[in-house]
Amino acid sequence: MINGDDRAATSLSRGRAILITSPDQITADWLTRRLRDGGYLSYFRVNDVRLIGREESGAATRYNLRIRYSDISVTRSLPDNMILKVYRAGHPLADREVTFYRTILPAMRQRFGEGDLGVSDAYDAFYDIDADQSHVLIAGIPTGYKEHREAVPPTGRHFAQLAETIAKIHASFWQNEHLGDLALTEAQLEDRLARQRDGFDRFLSDGMLRPDPDQRATLNAVAGRMPADFRESLLTGRHLTVIHNNLKPGNLVYSHRACRILDWKDWRTGLPAEDLACLIAFHWPPAKRKFEEPRFLQRHWAEMKRHGVSDYAYEDYLRHYRRAIGLRLGEMIGSWRMEDWRDGKWRLWDSILAGLCAFDEHDVKQLFPG
C-alpha cells in the first residue's frame, strides 16, 4: 500500500538503517555494504567517497559526491557521482522523497522493467520518525546530461522523450487501488483551498506588486475555488495518478537523445493535466506555447493510452488541462510569501503572468464556479 503519510523508518537496502546527516558518514566501507545489500555491487568495492560540492535550499542540504570503485568496469552499471540530500528536521516534505524512492519508483520498474525511466535511481533512502528528518542518496546527473537554458525541450526528439517519460509515470498508477488512501477527505480539500485564499490575501496586502484589475479579478476567481469535476476526482480517486507536482524546466536535464526528471519531494496524487499545465502554461513562452502545446498534449495523451490508460477520452483530458491552468494559478498565488520576494524569488510572478496569459487564451474562467 502506497501511503504518503507513512513515516515509517525504513530504507531501500536491507540491514540496519541509519539517518545520514553528514557526508562524513558515507564512508567507502558503508557505501560498499549498502550497494551489496541492495544487489547493486557483487564483486568489487567502493574505494573512495569524496565531497566535491554543497548546495543549500529551503528544504534540504545537497552534497555532491565523487565515487571511486576498485575496478573501472563498475561504472558501466553504477554512477561515479552521487547526490546526498539531507532534509531539514521538521520540514513538511521531509518524508516525501523517501516514499517516492521506496514505493513509487520500484513499482514503475516492476511494470516497465530496468530500462531508462527518466528518473534517477536511489541507493539509500531513510526517514527517522523520531528526528522527523530524512536523507536520500541518489545517482548524480549522468555524464552528457545538462540543463537546457530555454524553457522548452531543445529538439523534437526531446519533446517526444519528455512526453513519453511523463506519460509512463502517469500511466503507472492510473486510478490504482493502491492510491486509495491518498484520495483527499473533504476536510483536507477545504484546508488546501483555505490556504490558497490566505496566500492571496497576503499577496494583496504586502504591496510588493499591484496587479491590474483584470489580473486581480482572475486571481480572485481561482484562489480557493475548484471546479466540481476536479473536486470529485480528488475525493473519489477517479482520474488520479502520481504527479510530479513541480514540473518546471529547472527540474529537467537533457542528453543528446534523452531527458531526466529531477527532484521528487513535491510528488502527490492528482490529475495528469496538473503536471502538463505546470510545465507548459506557466513556463513556456506564449508564442512557443501556442505552436507546441497542441502536439505535446496529443503526444502525452497518446503515450498514456499506449501504456494502458484506455478509459480517458481526449476531450476530457483537454477539459482537465484547461481547468488545471486555473488550479495551478490558485496554488501559486496561495504559496505567496513576501519573504520569498525579498530573497529574490521574484520569478514566481513571471510564471504567474505566463499562466494568466494561458488562462485567458483558453477561456478558463468559464470553467470555475462563480
Helix and strand topology:
Blueprint: H1 28-37, E1 46-56, E2 60-69, E3 81-87, H2 96-112, E4 122-128, E5 133-139, H3 156-172, H4 186-206, H5 213-222, H6 228-236, E6 241-243, E7 252-254, E8 259-261, E9 268-270, H7 272-283, H8 286-306, H9 314-334, H10 338-342, H11 347-361
Antiparallel strand pairs: 1-2, 2-3, 3-5, 4-5, 6-9, 7-8
Structural account:
The chain has two domains: 23-139, 2-Layer Sandwich (Phosphorylase Kinase, domain 1); 156-367, Aminoglycoside 3'-phosphotransferase, Chain: A, domain 2, CATH 3.90.1200. It contains eleven helices and nine strands. It has helices at residues 28-37, 96-112, 156-172, 186-206, 213-222, 228-236, 272-283, 286-306, 314-334, 338-342, 347-361, and strands at 46-56, 60-69, 81-87, 122-128, 133-139, 241-243, 252-254, 259-261, 268-270. A five-stranded antiparallel β-sheet has the order 1-2-3-5-4, with helices on both faces. Strands 6-9 form a two-stranded antiparallel ribbon. Strands 7-8 form a two-stranded antiparallel sheet. Strand 1 and strand 2 form a beta hairpin. The longest helix is centred in the middle third of the chain and has 21 residues, at 186-206. The protein is globular and about 65 Å long.
Summarize the structure.
The protein is α+β, with helices and mostly antiparallel strands. 43% of the residues lie in helices and 15% in strands.
